[in-house]
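Translate sequence into structure tokens.
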Amino acid sequence: MRLDKVGKRYGIRLPWVVRDASLEIPAGGLVRFEGRNGSGKSTLLRVIAGVSTPSRGAVTGRPVTGYVPERFPAALPFPAHEYLAHLGRVHGLTGPDLEARIEACLDRLGGRELAQVPLRNMSKGMCQKVAVAQALLPRSGLLVLDEAWTGLDAEAKAALDDAVAERLANGGSVVFVDHEPGRLARLGGDRWRLEN
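Result follows.
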């Protein structure tokens, strides 16, 4: 996947949040974005994930993508299973395969009991497990994780670390932001810093 001179701003008269970002994310590549608050990390991750279009430049070669946003929409009125089933269908999963993926992703994070709980009735940690589970529904491709570990208990954090390692081992790519400096350091990868 490539970004060529990507820029993003949220209005024609507003300042650029990200400008002239060019980089390549190779298959099997791990990329950590760093920078102070307000430097454009989340904006760039949204562009990489495909949920926001660049104002300038081009993104090419984006694979199937699972994305955990910095702010998960926790006030949704439907249960976790219904939410995960909808997003699974968006990724092309159906029938028994969809049900198996939902169960496996929730189980992995210690969240099986959340399946029938409405998202608006969940704590931050519970919602975060659902947010991570939906990103893991596709078995391969790119994972974009914007502070995905925030709010998770120790077991779920370890499960996400393992899921990242598996994704990389299977040729997928992972792009992430996290406030913990040592997060995923054992896996190597590149560090990109956003400034100015």
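Note: The mean pLDDT is 94.
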